[in-house]
Design goal:
Layout (H helix, E strand, L loop, with lengths): L1 H5 L10 E5 L12 E5 L3 E6 L17 E6 L17 H18 L7 H9 L23
Antiparallel strand pairs: 1-2, 2-3, 3-4
Length: 144
């Protein structure tokens, strides 16, 4: 990770970190289930908020949502840019990288990229996605 943050990563290094937290609202952490990617500047997170039948995880009523942070301009991650038209291309690029990384490692997405992007487009954001990974999980984009 240090080469990503120091901006000294090799050309062959994708400069992308992937994470997933499975245990929705477990008794020790009470953290919500999510996954995402982080590069040297941006972080995209999908809070799917579903225990997925994991032992020790608990259901809740929290709706799924997306978060996008510009960690250079907002290092404390106070301003979610997922619905900001100025960040629509960044959202699209990171979503494609998230999908690719999940496919590469064999992780099952809880979102449908084509539907997520269509939802963004319906709000006037200019995004274009050519394909979606087939899955039957829900998708969502955070309300503005």
């Amino acid at each position: 990770m240090r080469p990503i943050f120091d901006r000294t990563a090799d050309d062959g290094d994708t400069g992308l970190a992937y994470h997933r937290y499975w245990m929705h609202k477990d008794e020790f952490h009470n953290a919500f289930a999510h996954y995402g990617v982080r590069d040297a500047r941006y972080k995209l997170i999908y809070w799917y908020n579903d225990p997925l039948g994991q032992l020790g995880a608990f259901s809740g009523v929290e709706p799924p949502e997306w978060e996008l942070f510009d960690c250079e301009k907002d290092p404390f991650e106070l301003h979610n840019r997922a619905n900001d038209p100025a960040y629509s291309e960044i959202f699209e690029e990171l979503l494609a990288k998230l999908d690719a990384r999940m496919a590469e490692i064999g992780d099952t997405p809880e979102h449908r990229s084509a539907e997520v992007l269509a939802g963004l487009r319906s709000r006037g954001l200019s995004l274009d996605m050519q394909s979606d990974q087939a899955n039957d999980r829900r998708w969502a984009i955070a309300a503005p």
